[in-house]
Amino acid sequence: MQYSEIMVRHGELSTKGKNRMRFINKLKHNIEDVLSVFPEVKVSSDRDRTHVYLNGTDYEPVADALKKIFGIQGFSPVYKLEKDMNLIKSFVQTLMTDLYREGLTFKISSKRSDHHFELDSRELNHVLGDAVFEAVPNIKAQMKHPDINLKVEIRDEAVYISYEDIKGAGGLPVGTSGKGMLMISGGIDSPVAGYLSLKRGVDIEAVHFASPPYTSPGALKKAQDLTRKLTKFGGNIQFIEVPFTEIQEEIKAKAPEAYLMTLTRRFMMRITDRIREVRQGLVIINGESLGQVASQTLESMVAINAVTATPIVRPVVTMDKLEIIDLAQKIDTFDISIQPFEDCCTVFAPDRPKTNPKLHNAENYEKRMDVEGLIERAVNGIKITIITPHEEKDEIEHLINNLL
Predict the structure, then answer these.
(1) Mean of the pLDDT values across residues 276-305?
(2) What pLDDT sits at residue 340?
(3) Which residues pair with 71 in a beta bridge?
(4) 179-402: CATH superfamily
(5) Residue 381: what pLDDT?
(6) Which of 52, 180, 293, 364 could bridge to 6 as Cys pair (CB 3.0-4.6 Å)?
(7) Any binding-site annotation on 296?
(8) Mean pLDDT over residues 140-144, rounded?
């Protein structure tokens, strides 16, 4: 017999008081986004749990997807039966016979929300327990920590039986902690930073800087594929492609080589902040890890951050490279990140970047450029794509013109 639905437990959401339903409804929406690749699956939620109705869809791939969605404490696959005691007893006997192994202990946990049903919860426990002993004489009952806790729920429309408890990803539903702009390159660190932000409920939009012809279509697709890997944790993500060629050529022409990276990052920060403001984000997120490269020393961070008062969230700032790689492998972004497509930071990287850039020097070099004009043209040329769990469903939302 196939599972009919999966019952999802909400975890941390039970502590949210008056805001609880807002969190639950957001989780429902995220589950629908992630499971949109299974067209027959339907989702509904109430205060206590979310129900994922399989409608004939194979259980395993749906369960694999649910394991990754933030906000889910755990879930159980469920069998659906008609409200007939003979049928219920027979099914329980068959199920426990199939599950039995020597020394196995069990418990019946009944719940009756349909108070017109012929037996109450206590009576159900006794009747179904006796039925199990009849079918499997050697099995032992155990009220605390049994091997199998067989849960039987009598609802108005049917009977639901489950026995497995599968651990979920925990965390908060993506989108319940506000929006942040993730600066995503093609490297290892920024997708991990995105993953850690998603875990605490931040709705991310991915901002990627492209410098054709110096960067290739392969580099752009790499960043989109990394973003797609992040959709499995909470649903669709807006991917914002920023044209950056003019700015990088201007920096290279008018600033000393040692300051190319500092000025590049200052422009990226300004543009990301401008996009954040228009799209009502609250923070900027990046994958900087302290001391990993020249632009990630404290001195560099100070010089780069000076262009904005917006909070910069750095989820991996204290992690070393091996820790970040471990997480990248866990979330399945590592193999994409190491593909040999260079991003715009790499192709314009100086041989000897300044590790302790002076803010006043950076500001003086920028006086040689039309900073506001360069930023405005870049922001006006952004392209926004909705990245979905499946590439063929991605949609170009719009080409932003005259955004500011």
Answers:
(1) 90
(2) 86
(3) none
(4) HUPs (3.40.50.620)
(5) 96
(6) 52
(7) yes
(8) 93
Report, as an integer, the average pLDDT of 55-74.
Answer: 95
Please report, as a single letter, which amino acid is at residue 186: G
**What are the sequence ranges of the domains in the chain?**
5-167, 179-402
Length of the chain: 404
Q: What is the token pair recorded at 118?
A: 């012929």
- For every residue of 135-150, DSSP letters joined together read H-TT-EE-SSS-SEEE
User: Residue 337, Cα to own-chain centre: how many angstroms?
Assistant: 17
Confidence at residue 401, expressed as pLDDT on a 0 to 100 scale:
47
Assigned CATH class of 5-167: alpha beta
Enumerate residues 6+ apart whose C-beta is below 8 A from 82.
Answer: 158, 159
pLDDT per position as a tens digit, 200-234: 999 999 999 999 999 999 999 999 999 999 999 99
Query: Exposed, middle or buried: residue 100 (CB in 10 Å: 0-12, 13-18, 19+)?
Result: middle
- Cα within 13 Å of Cα(69), Cβ side: 32
C-alpha angle with apex 36: 34 to 37, nearest 5 degrees? Answer: 100
73 appears as a binding residue in the annotation: no
State yes or no: 183 annotated in a binding site.
yes
In 3D, which of 146, 56, 54, 135 has the Cα closest to residue 91? 135
Q: What is the pLDDT of residue 289?
A: 92
* pLDDT of residue 402 exceeding 50: no
328 φ/ψ sector (left φ>0, alpha ψ -120 to 50, else beta): alpha
- Let me know if 59 is exposed, middle or buried by CB neighbors in 10 A (0-12, 13-18, 19+): middle
Q: Which two tokens stand for residue 375?
A: 């930023």
**Residue 10 assigned ligand-binding role:** no
pTM of the model: 0.87
User: 98-108, pLDDT tens digit by residue?
Assistant: 999 999 999 99
Which residues, in sequence order, are bridge partners of residue 141? 106
> Does the pLDDT value for residue 391 go beyond 80?
no
Six-digit token pair at 2? 């196939």
Cα angle: 279, vertex 282, 286; to 5 degrees: 95
What is the Cα–Cα distance from 355 to 361, expressed in whole angstroms?
Answer: 13
- Whether residue 244 is predicted with pLDDT greater than 60 in this model: the reply is yes
